[in-house]
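Exercise 7. Given the components listed, write out the predicted structure of the assembled complex. Treat all entries as one system.
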Amino acid sequence: MRPIRLIGRAGIALTRTIGRVGIFAARGLTRAGAHPSELARQMLHIGWLSLPVVGLTALFTGAALALQIHSGGERFQAGDVVPAIVAIGMARELGPVLGGLMVAARVASAIAAELGTMRVTEQIDALVTLSTDPVGWLVSPRIWAAILCLPVLVGVGDIIGIMGGWLIGVNALGFNSATYLSNSWAYLEGWDVGSGLIKGAFFGFVVALSGCWFGMSAGNGAAGVGRATTNAVVAASVGILAVNFLLTGLFF
Amino acid sequence: MIEVRGLTKSFGPKQVLDGVDLSLSEGESLVVIGGSGTGKSVLLRCILGLEAPDAGQILWRGRPLADQRAEFMDGFGMLFQNAALFDSLPVWRNVAFRLLRTMPSARARDIAVEKLARVGLGPEVADLYPAELSGGMRKRAGLARAIAADPKVIFFDEPTTGLDPIRAAAINALIRGIVDETGASAITITHDMTSVRAIGDRLALLDRGQVRWQGPVSQMDHAQDEYLQDFIAGRARPMGSHPAG
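Answer.
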Protein backbone atom coordinates (compact mmCIF):
# COMPACT_ATOMS: atom_id res chain seq x y z
CA MET A 1 0.00 0.00 0.00
CA ARG A 2 2.86 2.36 0.76
CA PRO A 3 4.08 2.90 -2.84
CA ILE A 4 0.49 3.48 -4.00
CA ARG A 5 0.00 6.00 -1.23
CA LEU A 6 3.23 7.79 -2.17
CA ILE A 7 2.24 7.91 -5.85
CA GLY A 8 -1.20 9.18 -4.89
CA ARG A 9 0.28 11.84 -2.64
CA ALA A 10 2.68 12.96 -5.37
CA GLY A 11 -0.18 13.05 -7.86
CA ILE A 12 -2.26 15.23 -5.56
CA ALA A 13 0.69 17.58 -4.93
CA LEU A 14 1.37 17.85 -8.68
CA THR A 15 -2.28 18.53 -9.47
CA ARG A 16 -2.41 21.15 -6.72
CA THR A 17 0.73 22.89 -8.06
CA ILE A 18 -0.62 22.87 -11.63
CA GLY A 19 -3.86 24.36 -10.35
CA ARG A 20 -2.02 27.06 -8.40
CA VAL A 21 0.21 27.97 -11.36
CA GLY A 22 -2.87 28.02 -13.62
CA ILE A 23 -4.75 30.40 -11.31
CA PHE A 24 -1.60 32.54 -10.91
CA ALA A 25 -1.16 32.74 -14.70
CA ALA A 26 -4.83 33.58 -15.24
CA ARG A 27 -4.62 36.38 -12.66
CA GLY A 28 -1.45 37.69 -14.30
CA LEU A 29 -3.05 37.69 -17.74
CA THR A 30 -6.33 39.27 -16.71
CA ARG A 31 -4.92 42.20 -14.71
CA ALA A 32 -3.32 43.82 -17.72
CA GLY A 33 -3.55 47.56 -18.15
CA ALA A 34 -3.79 48.46 -14.47
CA HIS A 35 -0.27 49.95 -14.46
CA PRO A 36 0.72 51.10 -17.98
CA SER A 37 3.90 52.81 -16.76
CA GLU A 38 5.10 49.52 -15.27
CA LEU A 39 4.28 47.74 -18.55
CA ALA A 40 6.39 50.28 -20.47
CA ARG A 41 9.27 49.86 -18.00
CA GLN A 42 9.16 46.09 -18.32
CA MET A 43 9.02 46.28 -22.12
CA LEU A 44 12.23 48.28 -21.98
CA HIS A 45 13.89 45.72 -19.68
CA ILE A 46 12.62 42.58 -21.37
CA GLY A 47 12.52 43.72 -24.99
CA TRP A 48 14.96 46.50 -25.70
CA LEU A 49 17.73 45.33 -23.36
CA SER A 50 17.50 41.76 -24.72
CA LEU A 51 18.19 42.92 -28.29
CA PRO A 52 22.01 42.59 -28.10
CA VAL A 53 21.99 39.03 -26.76
CA VAL A 54 19.25 37.87 -29.15
CA GLY A 55 20.94 39.63 -32.10
CA LEU A 56 24.37 38.10 -31.42
CA THR A 57 22.85 34.66 -30.90
CA ALA A 58 20.99 34.91 -34.21
CA LEU A 59 24.05 36.22 -36.06
CA PHE A 60 26.29 33.34 -35.01
CA THR A 61 23.52 30.77 -35.42
CA GLY A 62 22.77 31.91 -38.99
CA ALA A 63 26.46 31.88 -39.85
CA ALA A 64 27.03 28.41 -38.38
CA LEU A 65 23.88 27.11 -40.07
CA ALA A 66 25.14 28.32 -43.45
CA LEU A 67 28.44 26.49 -42.93
CA GLN A 68 26.66 23.29 -41.84
CA ILE A 69 24.11 23.28 -44.66
CA HIS A 70 26.80 23.97 -47.23
CA SER A 71 29.05 21.24 -45.90
CA GLY A 72 26.19 18.70 -45.63
CA GLY A 73 24.59 19.75 -48.94
CA GLU A 74 27.83 19.29 -50.84
CA ARG A 75 27.60 15.55 -50.20
CA PHE A 76 24.72 15.30 -52.68
CA GLN A 77 25.50 18.34 -54.82
CA ALA A 78 22.90 20.51 -53.06
CA GLY A 79 25.13 23.27 -51.73
CA ASP A 80 22.92 25.85 -53.43
CA VAL A 81 20.10 25.34 -50.96
CA VAL A 82 22.03 27.23 -48.24
CA PRO A 83 20.07 30.54 -48.52
CA ALA A 84 16.64 28.89 -48.46
CA ILE A 85 17.44 26.46 -45.64
CA VAL A 86 19.05 29.15 -43.51
CA ALA A 87 16.03 31.44 -43.96
CA ILE A 88 13.45 28.71 -43.29
CA GLY A 89 15.45 27.21 -40.42
CA MET A 90 15.92 30.57 -38.73
CA ALA A 91 12.31 31.70 -39.17
CA ARG A 92 10.58 28.47 -38.20
CA GLU A 93 12.80 27.01 -35.53
CA LEU A 94 16.16 28.44 -34.57
CA GLY A 95 15.16 32.11 -34.33
CA PRO A 96 12.28 31.56 -31.89
CA VAL A 97 13.83 28.69 -29.91
CA LEU A 98 17.34 30.08 -29.45
CA GLY A 99 16.01 33.61 -28.97
CA GLY A 100 13.56 32.26 -26.39
CA LEU A 101 16.28 30.33 -24.57
CA MET A 102 18.56 33.36 -24.44
CA VAL A 103 15.72 35.51 -23.11
CA ALA A 104 14.92 32.73 -20.61
CA ALA A 105 18.49 32.89 -19.32
CA ARG A 106 18.49 36.66 -19.13
CA VAL A 107 14.93 37.55 -18.17
CA ALA A 108 13.52 34.60 -16.17
CA SER A 109 16.54 34.75 -13.86
CA ALA A 110 16.28 38.52 -13.45
CA ILE A 111 12.55 38.41 -12.73
CA ALA A 112 12.89 35.54 -10.23
CA ALA A 113 15.81 37.22 -8.45
CA GLU A 114 14.05 40.60 -8.26
CA LEU A 115 10.66 39.28 -7.11
CA GLY A 116 12.31 36.72 -4.82
CA THR A 117 14.30 39.47 -3.12
CA MET A 118 11.16 41.56 -2.83
CA ARG A 119 9.40 38.57 -1.22
CA VAL A 120 12.08 37.89 1.40
CA THR A 121 12.54 41.59 2.24
CA GLU A 122 8.77 42.05 2.79
CA GLN A 123 8.41 44.44 -0.15
CA ILE A 124 5.55 42.35 -1.52
CA ASP A 125 3.80 42.47 1.87
CA ALA A 126 4.39 46.24 1.81
CA LEU A 127 2.52 46.44 -1.51
CA VAL A 128 -0.48 44.76 0.12
CA THR A 129 -0.41 47.26 3.00
CA LEU A 130 -0.41 50.04 0.39
CA SER A 131 -3.65 48.73 -1.12
CA THR A 132 -1.83 47.47 -4.21
CA ASP A 133 -2.37 44.02 -5.70
CA PRO A 134 1.12 42.48 -6.13
CA VAL A 135 -0.04 40.43 -9.12
CA GLY A 136 -1.38 43.49 -10.91
CA TRP A 137 1.68 45.59 -10.10
CA LEU A 138 4.49 43.04 -10.50
CA VAL A 139 3.31 39.98 -12.42
CA SER A 140 0.93 41.23 -15.07
CA PRO A 141 3.24 43.89 -16.58
CA ARG A 142 6.09 41.36 -16.82
CA ILE A 143 3.96 38.66 -18.43
CA TRP A 144 2.42 41.03 -20.99
CA ALA A 145 5.74 42.75 -21.72
CA ALA A 146 7.31 39.36 -22.50
CA ILE A 147 4.33 38.26 -24.64
CA LEU A 148 4.49 41.50 -26.64
CA CYS A 149 8.28 41.77 -26.93
CA LEU A 150 9.34 38.21 -27.76
CA PRO A 151 7.73 38.16 -31.24
CA VAL A 152 9.54 41.42 -32.06
CA LEU A 153 12.82 39.97 -30.78
CA VAL A 154 12.22 36.81 -32.82
CA GLY A 155 11.52 38.89 -35.95
CA VAL A 156 14.69 40.90 -35.46
CA GLY A 157 16.60 37.66 -34.73
CA ASP A 158 15.29 36.11 -37.97
CA ILE A 159 16.59 39.03 -40.02
CA ILE A 160 19.97 39.09 -38.25
CA GLY A 161 20.28 35.28 -38.54
CA ILE A 162 19.62 35.40 -42.28
CA MET A 163 22.19 38.19 -42.52
CA GLY A 164 24.67 35.97 -40.63
CA GLY A 165 24.15 33.25 -43.25
CA TRP A 166 24.50 35.83 -46.02
CA LEU A 167 27.80 37.11 -44.56
CA ILE A 168 29.28 33.60 -44.57
CA GLY A 169 27.64 32.65 -47.86
CA VAL A 170 29.08 35.66 -49.70
CA ASN A 171 32.46 35.89 -47.98
CA ALA A 172 33.36 32.23 -47.39
CA LEU A 173 31.18 30.01 -49.56
CA GLY A 174 31.39 31.88 -52.87
CA PHE A 175 27.73 32.90 -53.24
CA ASN A 176 26.78 35.96 -55.26
CA SER A 177 25.25 38.50 -52.87
CA ALA A 178 22.12 39.31 -54.91
CA THR A 179 21.48 35.64 -55.71
CA TYR A 180 21.83 34.66 -52.06
CA LEU A 181 19.30 37.26 -50.95
CA SER A 182 16.81 36.52 -53.72
CA ASN A 183 17.02 32.77 -52.95
CA SER A 184 16.48 33.49 -49.29
CA TRP A 185 13.19 35.31 -49.95
CA ALA A 186 12.05 33.10 -52.85
CA TYR A 187 11.46 30.00 -50.73
CA LEU A 188 10.39 31.72 -47.54
CA GLU A 189 6.61 31.73 -46.97
CA GLY A 190 4.63 34.05 -44.76
CA TRP A 191 3.61 31.21 -42.43
CA ASP A 192 7.28 30.30 -41.87
CA VAL A 193 7.76 33.73 -40.32
CA GLY A 194 4.28 33.98 -38.76
CA SER A 195 4.52 30.63 -36.98
CA GLY A 196 7.89 31.67 -35.51
CA LEU A 197 6.45 34.95 -34.24
CA ILE A 198 3.49 33.13 -32.64
CA LYS A 199 5.94 30.74 -31.00
CA GLY A 200 7.81 33.78 -29.69
CA ALA A 201 4.67 35.08 -27.95
CA PHE A 202 4.12 31.69 -26.25
CA PHE A 203 7.79 31.52 -25.25
CA GLY A 204 7.53 35.01 -23.76
CA PHE A 205 4.59 33.86 -21.65
CA VAL A 206 6.54 30.78 -20.47
CA VAL A 207 9.64 32.84 -19.59
CA ALA A 208 7.80 35.54 -17.63
CA LEU A 209 5.46 33.08 -15.91
CA SER A 210 8.41 30.96 -14.72
CA GLY A 211 10.28 34.00 -13.40
CA CYS A 212 7.22 35.44 -11.67
CA TRP A 213 5.98 32.16 -10.18
CA PHE A 214 9.30 31.11 -8.68
CA GLY A 215 10.14 34.66 -7.59
CA MET A 216 6.79 35.20 -5.85
CA SER A 217 7.06 31.78 -4.16
CA ALA A 218 10.63 32.32 -2.92
CA GLY A 219 11.41 31.96 0.78
CA ASN A 220 14.21 31.30 3.24
CA GLY A 221 16.43 34.30 2.55
CA ALA A 222 19.28 34.44 0.05
CA ALA A 223 19.38 30.67 -0.42
CA GLY A 224 15.68 30.67 -1.28
CA VAL A 225 16.17 33.44 -3.83
CA GLY A 226 19.07 31.50 -5.38
CA ARG A 227 16.90 28.37 -5.65
CA ALA A 228 14.04 30.37 -7.14
CA THR A 229 16.36 31.84 -9.78
CA THR A 230 17.77 28.45 -10.77
CA ASN A 231 14.32 26.85 -10.89
CA ALA A 232 12.94 29.70 -12.98
CA VAL A 233 15.64 29.34 -15.65
CA VAL A 234 15.34 25.54 -15.74
CA ALA A 235 11.53 25.65 -15.92
CA ALA A 236 11.55 28.37 -18.59
CA SER A 237 14.12 26.52 -20.74
CA VAL A 238 12.40 23.14 -20.54
CA GLY A 239 9.02 24.85 -20.95
CA ILE A 240 10.17 26.56 -24.16
CA LEU A 241 11.37 23.28 -25.67
CA ALA A 242 8.16 21.48 -24.67
CA VAL A 243 5.89 24.26 -25.96
CA ASN A 244 7.98 24.42 -29.15
CA PHE A 245 7.37 20.72 -29.75
CA LEU A 246 3.62 21.09 -29.17
CA LEU A 247 3.31 24.17 -31.39
CA THR A 248 5.44 22.65 -34.16
CA GLY A 249 3.18 19.58 -34.11
CA LEU A 250 0.13 21.85 -34.20
CA PHE A 251 1.37 24.19 -36.94
CA PHE A 252 3.00 21.80 -39.42
CA MET B 1 -11.66 49.55 17.07
CA ILE B 2 -9.79 46.30 16.35
CA GLU B 3 -10.69 43.20 18.29
CA VAL B 4 -8.96 39.83 18.06
CA ARG B 5 -10.89 36.90 19.53
CA GLY B 6 -9.54 33.39 20.01
CA LEU B 7 -7.03 33.67 17.16
CA THR B 8 -5.34 30.36 16.40
CA LYS B 9 -2.66 29.65 13.85
CA SER B 10 -0.27 26.76 13.41
CA PHE B 11 2.38 25.93 10.82
CA GLY B 12 2.48 22.16 10.51
CA PRO B 13 2.90 20.73 14.03
CA LYS B 14 3.99 24.10 15.47
CA GLN B 15 1.21 25.99 17.22
CA VAL B 16 2.17 29.67 16.90
CA LEU B 17 -1.02 31.38 18.08
CA ASP B 18 -3.20 29.52 20.53
CA GLY B 19 -6.33 31.53 21.22
CA VAL B 20 -5.11 35.13 21.30
CA ASP B 21 -7.59 37.70 22.62
CA LEU B 22 -6.59 41.32 22.18
CA SER B 23 -8.22 44.66 21.52
CA LEU B 24 -7.10 48.06 20.30
CA SER B 25 -9.15 51.17 21.08
CA GLU B 26 -9.45 54.32 18.99
CA GLY B 27 -6.33 56.49 19.40
CA GLU B 28 -4.59 53.92 21.60
CA SER B 29 -0.98 52.79 21.26
CA LEU B 30 -0.68 49.08 22.06
CA VAL B 31 2.74 47.47 22.31
CA VAL B 32 3.08 43.70 21.94
CA ILE B 33 6.19 42.07 23.36
CA GLY B 34 7.31 38.47 23.70
CA GLY B 35 10.24 36.17 23.11
CA SER B 36 11.37 35.22 19.62
CA GLY B 37 8.97 32.85 17.90
CA THR B 38 6.03 33.60 20.19
CA GLY B 39 3.84 34.67 17.28
CA LYS B 40 4.03 38.47 17.40
CA SER B 41 4.66 38.91 13.68
CA VAL B 42 2.17 36.17 12.81
CA LEU B 43 -0.44 38.06 14.84
CA LEU B 44 0.11 41.18 12.70
CA ARG B 45 0.16 39.16 9.48
CA CYS B 46 -3.16 37.55 10.41
CA ILE B 47 -4.74 40.93 11.11
CA LEU B 48 -3.49 42.19 7.71
CA GLY B 49 -4.76 39.13 5.87
CA LEU B 50 -1.25 38.05 4.87
CA GLU B 51 -1.81 34.77 6.77
CA ALA B 52 -5.12 32.94 7.09
CA PRO B 53 -5.84 32.07 10.75
CA ASP B 54 -6.96 28.51 11.54
CA ALA B 55 -9.65 29.78 13.89
CA GLY B 56 -10.81 32.91 15.67
CA GLN B 57 -12.18 36.28 14.68
CA ILE B 58 -10.69 39.64 13.78
CA LEU B 59 -13.20 42.48 14.01
CA TRP B 60 -12.88 46.09 12.92
CA ARG B 61 -15.52 48.51 14.12
CA GLY B 62 -17.54 45.52 15.30
CA ARG B 63 -17.66 43.68 11.97
CA PRO B 64 -15.32 41.03 10.50
CA LEU B 65 -12.25 42.78 9.12
CA ALA B 66 -12.09 40.38 6.17
CA ASP B 67 -15.39 41.78 4.87
CA GLN B 68 -14.08 45.36 4.85
CA ARG B 69 -10.38 44.75 4.11
CA ALA B 70 -10.14 47.25 1.21
CA GLU B 71 -11.62 50.05 3.31
CA PHE B 72 -9.36 49.15 6.26
CA MET B 73 -6.24 49.13 4.06
CA ASP B 74 -7.10 52.55 2.62
CA GLY B 75 -6.68 54.05 6.10
CA PHE B 76 -3.73 51.94 7.14
CA GLY B 77 0.04 52.42 7.29
CA MET B 78 2.87 50.12 8.33
CA LEU B 79 6.53 50.42 9.16
CA PHE B 80 8.26 47.12 8.42
CA GLN B 81 11.22 45.78 10.37
CA ASN B 82 13.69 46.56 7.57
CA ALA B 83 11.51 49.35 6.14
CA ALA B 84 10.67 47.25 3.01
CA LEU B 85 11.20 50.22 0.70
CA PHE B 86 10.88 49.41 -3.00
CA ASP B 87 14.44 49.22 -4.35
CA SER B 88 13.48 50.20 -7.88
CA LEU B 89 11.82 53.49 -6.89
CA PRO B 90 13.40 56.70 -5.55
CA VAL B 91 12.59 57.58 -1.96
CA TRP B 92 9.92 60.17 -2.81
CA ARG B 93 8.04 57.66 -5.00
CA ASN B 94 8.21 55.16 -2.16
CA VAL B 95 6.72 57.69 0.26
CA ALA B 96 4.12 58.88 -2.25
CA PHE B 97 3.31 55.38 -3.54
CA ARG B 98 -0.30 55.41 -2.37
CA LEU B 99 -0.81 59.11 -3.18
CA LEU B 100 0.30 58.72 -6.81
CA ARG B 101 -2.89 56.81 -7.54
CA THR B 102 -5.13 59.70 -6.56
CA MET B 103 -3.26 62.91 -7.34
CA PRO B 104 -0.83 64.44 -9.86
CA SER B 105 2.81 63.55 -9.50
CA ALA B 106 3.94 67.08 -8.52
CA ARG B 107 1.40 67.30 -5.68
CA ALA B 108 2.29 63.80 -4.44
CA ARG B 109 5.97 64.73 -4.46
CA ASP B 110 5.30 67.86 -2.39
CA ILE B 111 3.48 65.78 0.22
CA ALA B 112 6.27 63.18 0.18
CA VAL B 113 8.90 65.88 0.82
CA GLU B 114 6.73 67.28 3.62
CA LYS B 115 6.41 63.81 5.23
CA LEU B 116 10.15 63.24 4.85
CA ALA B 117 10.73 66.52 6.67
CA ARG B 118 8.36 65.33 9.43
CA VAL B 119 10.65 62.35 10.05
CA GLY B 120 13.80 64.46 9.89
CA LEU B 121 14.94 63.82 6.33
CA GLY B 122 15.79 66.72 4.03
CA PRO B 123 14.51 67.23 0.47
CA GLU B 124 17.87 66.05 -0.92
CA VAL B 125 16.92 62.52 0.17
CA ALA B 126 13.81 62.50 -2.01
CA ASP B 127 15.63 61.59 -5.22
CA LEU B 128 17.98 59.01 -3.70
CA TYR B 129 17.30 55.30 -4.02
CA PRO B 130 16.76 53.16 -0.88
CA ALA B 131 20.11 51.40 -1.39
CA GLU B 132 21.84 54.78 -0.91
CA LEU B 133 20.36 55.29 2.58
CA SER B 134 21.73 54.20 5.96
CA GLY B 135 19.67 51.87 8.18
CA GLY B 136 18.31 54.74 10.26
CA MET B 137 17.42 56.79 7.19
CA ARG B 138 15.61 53.81 5.68
CA LYS B 139 13.54 53.46 8.85
CA ARG B 140 12.66 57.13 8.70
CA ALA B 141 11.73 56.91 5.02
CA GLY B 142 9.63 53.82 5.82
CA LEU B 143 7.94 55.80 8.59
CA ALA B 144 7.27 58.66 6.15
CA ARG B 145 5.65 56.17 3.76
CA ALA B 146 3.54 54.73 6.59
CA ILE B 147 2.10 58.16 7.47
CA ALA B 148 1.95 59.61 3.95
CA ALA B 149 -1.81 59.17 3.55
CA ASP B 150 -2.65 60.13 7.16
CA PRO B 151 -3.72 56.63 8.26
CA LYS B 152 -6.15 55.88 11.08
CA VAL B 153 -4.33 52.67 12.02
CA ILE B 154 -0.54 52.18 11.98
CA PHE B 155 1.48 49.03 12.70
CA PHE B 156 5.16 49.19 13.63
CA ASP B 157 7.12 45.94 13.32
CA GLU B 158 10.32 46.05 15.41
CA PRO B 159 10.86 49.76 14.70
CA THR B 160 14.20 50.06 16.50
CA THR B 161 15.82 46.73 15.60
CA GLY B 162 19.32 47.21 14.22
CA LEU B 163 19.62 50.87 15.28
CA ASP B 164 22.06 52.34 17.77
CA PRO B 165 20.49 53.66 21.04
CA ILE B 166 20.51 57.29 19.89
CA ARG B 167 18.82 56.57 16.55
CA ALA B 168 16.44 54.16 18.29
CA ALA B 169 15.44 56.91 20.73
CA ALA B 170 14.85 59.29 17.81
CA ILE B 171 12.59 56.75 16.06
CA ASN B 172 10.69 56.10 19.30
CA ALA B 173 10.14 59.83 19.78
CA LEU B 174 8.97 60.20 16.18
CA ILE B 175 6.50 57.34 16.52
CA ARG B 176 5.08 58.68 19.78
CA GLY B 177 4.86 62.18 18.29
CA ILE B 178 3.08 60.96 15.16
CA VAL B 179 0.59 58.83 17.11
CA ASP B 180 -0.20 61.78 19.40
CA GLU B 181 -0.50 64.28 16.51
CA THR B 182 -2.66 62.19 14.24
CA GLY B 183 -4.74 60.41 16.84
CA ALA B 184 -4.09 57.16 14.98
CA SER B 185 -4.43 53.79 16.68
CA ALA B 186 -1.14 51.91 16.71
CA ILE B 187 0.15 48.41 17.34
CA THR B 188 3.90 48.09 17.84
CA ILE B 189 5.81 44.83 18.02
CA THR B 190 9.14 45.06 19.78
CA HIS B 191 11.69 43.44 22.07
CA ASP B 192 12.98 46.81 23.15
CA MET B 193 11.68 47.83 26.58
CA THR B 194 12.81 51.43 25.98
CA SER B 195 10.43 51.47 23.01
CA VAL B 196 7.65 50.07 25.19
CA ARG B 197 7.98 52.96 27.64
CA ALA B 198 8.38 55.58 24.91
CA ILE B 199 5.64 54.44 22.54
CA GLY B 200 3.04 52.45 24.43
CA ASP B 201 -0.15 53.26 26.30
CA ARG B 202 -0.88 49.60 26.91
CA LEU B 203 1.27 46.47 26.88
CA ALA B 204 0.48 42.86 25.92
CA LEU B 205 2.97 40.08 26.61
CA LEU B 206 2.69 37.08 24.28
CA ASP B 207 3.92 33.72 25.49
CA ARG B 208 3.47 30.35 23.76
CA GLY B 209 0.82 31.76 21.45
CA GLN B 210 -1.31 33.35 24.17
CA VAL B 211 -1.56 36.75 25.81
CA ARG B 212 0.10 36.12 29.16
CA TRP B 213 -0.26 39.61 30.63
CA GLN B 214 -1.79 42.84 29.46
CA GLY B 215 -2.34 46.20 31.05
CA PRO B 216 -1.29 49.85 31.03
CA VAL B 217 2.43 50.45 30.48
CA SER B 218 2.41 52.56 33.66
CA GLN B 219 1.54 49.40 35.68
CA MET B 220 3.92 46.92 34.11
CA ASP B 221 6.71 47.56 36.64
CA HIS B 222 4.38 46.55 39.47
CA ALA B 223 2.91 43.49 37.77
CA GLN B 224 3.19 40.17 39.61
CA ASP B 225 4.08 38.19 36.51
CA GLU B 226 7.57 36.76 36.94
CA TYR B 227 8.17 36.29 33.21
CA LEU B 228 7.20 39.91 32.51
CA GLN B 229 9.55 41.12 35.23
CA ASP B 230 12.38 39.06 33.72
CA PHE B 231 11.55 40.56 30.35
CA ILE B 232 11.60 44.11 31.75
CA ALA B 233 14.86 43.55 33.63
CA GLY B 234 16.47 41.61 30.79
CA ARG B 235 17.21 38.68 33.13
CA ALA B 236 18.41 35.44 31.59
CA ARG B 237 16.41 32.29 32.29
CA PRO B 238 16.95 28.69 31.19
CA MET B 239 15.82 28.12 27.60
CA GLY B 240 12.23 26.88 27.43
CA SER B 241 11.51 27.86 31.04
CA HIS B 242 8.10 29.52 31.35
CA PRO B 243 6.88 30.08 34.90
CA ALA B 244 3.15 30.16 35.48
CA GLY B 245 1.63 33.61 35.64
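Discussion: Residues 24-38+70-233 of chain B form a domain with the Rossmann fold fold (CATH 3.40.50.300). Chain B has a mean pLDDT of 89.
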